[in-house]
Amino acid sequence: MDPRQRPYRSVLYIPGSKERALDKARSLPVDAIIFDLEDAVAADEKENARETLKAALAEGGYGQKMRIVRINGLDTPWGRADAEAVREMDADVVLLPKVGSAADVDALAAITGDLPIWAMMETPRGMLNAAQIAAHPLLTGFVMGTNDLAKELQTRYRGDRLPMMTSLGLCLLAAKAEGLIAIDGVYNAFKDDEGLAVECAQGRDMGFDGKTLIHPAQVDIANAAFAPSEAEIDLARRQIAAFAEVEASGQGVAVVDGKIVENLHVATAREILAKAEAILALQAG
């Protein structure tokens, strides 16, 4: 499946050091997994985590889930060894934390070669340089690190995420301009289903492709929020049919539910149907 066409509704963090968690992840209905060597792994477990994760990925069993490995920063004692290890792993993407400039991506690419790179966007400098980071030829995705960003910005928590809007918007603009995947940050209260659903809906409305998750209990809500609804699929089909009918007759203007249907609406409708089909293909695989 083309990485840019596949679903990314649910992107679950899994500790790279925990064999049980790595095994359980094989059966979870997530679209992508971030195998974490950074925050989720204690300092004295860093080296063992690389070997544990390498063995789990070699064993396979993750189906069509996108396999993303988050390494430690290259400015840490573990970052370079992580990058060298990921280069030899059966991974789809390497995720670099705290990216502040395109030079950070260059430094990783010098180690990992042609392996696609995603950037954790979680610092003020990263926000200001989002456009240049997104334009890097090996960069294929952004992941919002909203916890670290909130710390750096010294914001207060708000349910509407108003203090985050400028940063989220800058990264979305940069990602969309370059055709990147854009994944929203985590929702920390993993037992608060209602709050998660609200934040997922907000992220989807803004244009994010999916949400990073910290607990398997969050998966179903994210999958539902970032998938086309039955109503959206039905409308898309009717828009395409109405537009095709008018084009064939060469007369009039296509109208569905009292609204004019133009080329741009048909393009969006086709994207909705393609995404729904990709979700079904992922589930079948």
Automatic annotation (TrEMBL):
* Keyword field: Magnesium, Metal-binding
Q: Which GO terms describe its molecular function?
A: catalytic activity; magnesium ion binding
Biological process per Gene Ontology, one example term: oxaloacetate metabolic process
Coiled-coil ranges from the UniProt annotation:
none
Where is substrate bound in this sequence? R70, E122
Instruction: Give the required cofactors.
Output: Mg(2+)
Write the protein's name: (3S)-malyl-CoA thioesterase
**Where is the HpcH/HpaI aldolase/citrate lyase domain positioned along the sequence?**
9-216
Q: Name one Pfam family in it.
A: HpcH_HpaI
Which family does the record claim for this protein?
A: Belongs to the HpcH/HpaI aldolase family.
**Residues involved in Mg(2+) binding:** E122, D148
Q: Which SUPFAM superfamilies match?
A: Phosphoenolpyruvate/pyruvate domain (SSF51621)
